[in-house]
Amino acid sequence: MTPISPPGRETIDHFHPKSGPHGRLDLALEWTNLFYCCDHCQQMKGDQFDEALLKPDASDYFFDKYFQWDFANGELKPNEVAPPEIQHRAKQTIKIFKLCEKHPILRLKELRNYLAGGATNLDDHSYRDFLERAG
């Protein structure tokens, strides 16, 4: 599960969608095009695609390079000190998966539950990276 995983069921997302204006039916069954994703984010993405979209298994990907948390409001934001191209890729990923729609409220709710429960196992919670860094 990724550091930004919301409370949802795991499913498989096609990095390059199968249909729509960016459809790549030829990649529908390619392992390199299939990734775990929660059902909510998969529905939000739909058949959208942008070449700037971050691929979760890229060798140069690491969370802090592209993103930062705003712990005051629960938002995921592009890393403000990253170069413009890196920020653009983070913005596109946030936009396509709609990671700042409903998620900030859910992150803050999960943080309150986590802190109220004391030291519990992070694996039992959604938004684990957010909780670990905030707590």
Give keywords:
globular, two-stranded antiparallel ribbon, 135 residues, 5 helices, single chain, alpha+beta
How would you explain this protein's 3D organization?
By secondary structure, the protein is an alpha+beta fold. The chain has one domain. Helices cover 34% and strands 13% of the residues. The longest helix is centred in the last third of the chain and has 14 residues.
Trace the largest sheet across and list its strands: 1-2
The geometry reads as globular
Rounded mean pLDDT is 87
Number of strands: 4
Helix content: 25-40%
Query: What percent of residues are in strands?
Result: 5-15%
- Total tally of structural domains: 1
